[in-house]
């Protein structure tokens, strides 16, 4: 490769069912944190074209088209909200009914690369962490790290990931294995509580960072599990454990990128959008009880690797 030359690999992934419904009067909800917004741009562009072809003169005459609502999360308006102006124009034109943007400015790797980091992301919550291990790989290549023994400049990078089945959600399985072999990822697991001693040492003793990404209910349960780990490993009561998590947040060492609210009435069957919570139940593997000996892994196991 010549100096200054850049080689890129382009992967094309086919998603035949990922398109607007044939019946345009149906409402659609789009959820796309970070780069996940990209495919939805074609949705609102297509809707604009359809409305122009039908010569829809005003918002009141939009009866042929269902609501189109976007939920989008990014780090900051300057970094990721590249379609901000376009979204506002689409809303004014009546193409988008509403759009909601949530910012997570602190959700990035720590400046000090020698600090250990723990990433927790069941289901689609794994998405932003991909940029973490990709950035770590680039940093290691730039520093010309020849072997795992020379990885002293970089702290541990550990991922806790839960999914329904290897075939359904574990889309980065091969990539994770490659990153572990290359020494980018130290380990990746599917149960948080069973690695309590390591979690405590990395976060409390070594000053590491703890990241959570996913459903708001999941984030709450993961926080509770972390507090249980702090109680057990740090020999502290519940109040002190909760205070320590608060201090981690204040020190910008506990990072959360949470989205959505899953609402289900008691007795209702589990819907498809609740399936991520299955991964959560296995990931936290904890019962909301006051006694540590009650925290046995009672959740039904979910296949992680085939």
Features of this protein?
single chain; 306 residues; alpha/beta; Rossmann fold; three-stranded parallel sheet; 8 strands; FMN binding; flavoprotein
How would you characterize this protein structure?
Helix 5 (196-205) packs across helix 6 (216-234), helix 6 (216-234) crosses helix 7 (238-250) and helix 6 (216-234) packs parallel to helix 8 (276-284). The chain has two domains: 28-103, Nucleotide-binding domain of ferredoxin-NADP reductase (FNR) module (Rossmann fold, 3-Layer(aba) Sandwich); 117-259, Nucleotide-binding domain of ferredoxin-NADP reductase (FNR) module (Rossmann fold, 3-Layer(aba) Sandwich). The chain has a five-stranded parallel sheet, sandwiched between helices. It has helices at residues 38-53, 84-92, 127-142, 173-181, 196-205, 216-234, 238-250, 276-284, and strands spanning 28-31, 68-74, 98-103, 117-120, 157-160, 187-189, 209-215, 254-259. It has 306 residues and is an alpha/beta fold. Strand 2, helix 2 (84-92) and strand 3 (98-103) form a beta-alpha-beta unit. The chain has eight helices and eight strands, in the order E-H-E-H-E-E-H-E-H-E-H-E-H-H-E-H. This is Oxidoreductase FAD/NAD(P)-binding domain-containing protein.
How many domains make up the coordinates? 2
Helix content: 25-40%
Largest sheet composition: 5 strands, parallel
SS content category: alpha/beta
Report mean pLDDT, rounded to a whole number.
Answer: 72
Count of alpha and pi helical runs: 8
Low-confidence stretches: 6-14, 261-306
Strand order in space, largest sheet: 6-5-4-7-8
Strand content of the residues, in percent? 5-15%
């Amino acid at each position: 490769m010549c100096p200054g030359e850049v080689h890129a690999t382009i992967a094309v992934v086919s998603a035949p069912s990922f398109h607007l419904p044939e019946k345009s009067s149906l409402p659609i909800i789009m959820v796309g944190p970070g780069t996940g917004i990209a495919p939805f741009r074609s949705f609102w562009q297509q809707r604009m074209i359809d409305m122009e072809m039908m010569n829809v003169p005003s918002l009141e005459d939009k009866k042929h088209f269902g609501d189109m609502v976007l939920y989008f999360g990014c780090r900051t308006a300057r970094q990721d909200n590249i379609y901000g102006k376009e979204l506002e124009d689409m809303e004014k034109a009546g193409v988008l009914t509403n759009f909601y943007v949530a910012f997570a400015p602190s959700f990035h790797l720590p400046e000090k690369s020698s600090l250990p980091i723990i990433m927790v992301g069941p289901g689609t919550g794994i998405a932003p962490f991909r940029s973490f291990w990709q950035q770590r790989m680039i940093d290691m290549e730039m520093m010309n790290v020849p072997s795992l023994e020379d990885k002293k400049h970089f702290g541990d990078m550990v991922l806790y990931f839960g999914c329904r089945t290897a075939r359904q959600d574990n889309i980065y399985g091969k990539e994770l294995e490659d990153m572990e072999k290359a020494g980018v990822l130290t380990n990746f697991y599917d149960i948080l509580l069973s690695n309590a001693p390591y979690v405590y040492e990395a976060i409390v003793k070594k000053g590491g960072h703890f990241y959570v990404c996913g459903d708001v209910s999941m984030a709450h349960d993961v926080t509770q599990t972390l507090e249980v780990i702090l109680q057990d490993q740090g020999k502290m009561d519940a109040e002190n454990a909760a205070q320590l998590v608060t201090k981690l947040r204040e020190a910008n060492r506990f990072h959360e990128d949470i989205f959505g609210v899953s609402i289900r009435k008691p007795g209702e069957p589990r819907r498809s959008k609740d399936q991520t919570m299955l991964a959560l139940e296995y990931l936290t593997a904890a019962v909301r009880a006051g006694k540590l000996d009650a925290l046995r892994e009672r959740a039904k196991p979910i296949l992680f690797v085939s």
